[in-house]
Target: Cytokinin riboside 5'-monophosphate phosphoribohydrolase
Amino acid sequence: MKICVFGASSEQIEKIYIDTAESLGRAIANRGDAVIYGAGKYGVMGATARGVTSEKGELIGVAPEFFKKDNVLYDKCTELVFTDTMRERKGVMEDRADAFVICAGGIGTFEEFFEVLTLKQLSQHRKPIVMYNVNGYYDSLINMMKKSVSEGFMSDDCLKLFTVANTEQEVFEQIDNYKEYTYDKYGFLRDGDNNG
Model:
């Protein structure tokens, strides 16, 4: 399985986010799964990468060409894919992934999360999306989405398209126990209540 990990490139974050990302990378590698990520060497991205390489796991980095000049790329990727644009970069990661884990991050991570969520809502993929809510980082975002539902801007069904994991163990349980939804002309129908 190829697990796409989205997360921060910032180094100005609390240690808990770095430590849990590195642990996640190690755990993915130890499962025999590969990580697809944004090829960075800093922040949550870099920590995940270091975790994978520490266990000699498969690490696929995807970055736009202009990242080459900024000295931000991790130099131990098993495979490094270059794209022309950020948009193309996301497309490569989305297409090659079997599952998505959303770690703590900023505007780029928010964009990546909402893109894979929107594509899933539109039935363009049926892959698990797990929000790794370390230290309650995403509580406010989840509440904002619930407000959007309560005020009629978004269907309650959208909240069932991703799961929220508070621990590393829950991340893998949610990926391993994932059940796809089926869609029809009236919206989407649950095949199983995998998202609680």
Observations:
- The longest strand covers residues 59-64.
- The helical segments are 15-30, 43-54, 86-96, 107-121, 139-150, 168-176.
- Residues 179 and 194 are 6 Å apart (CA to CA).
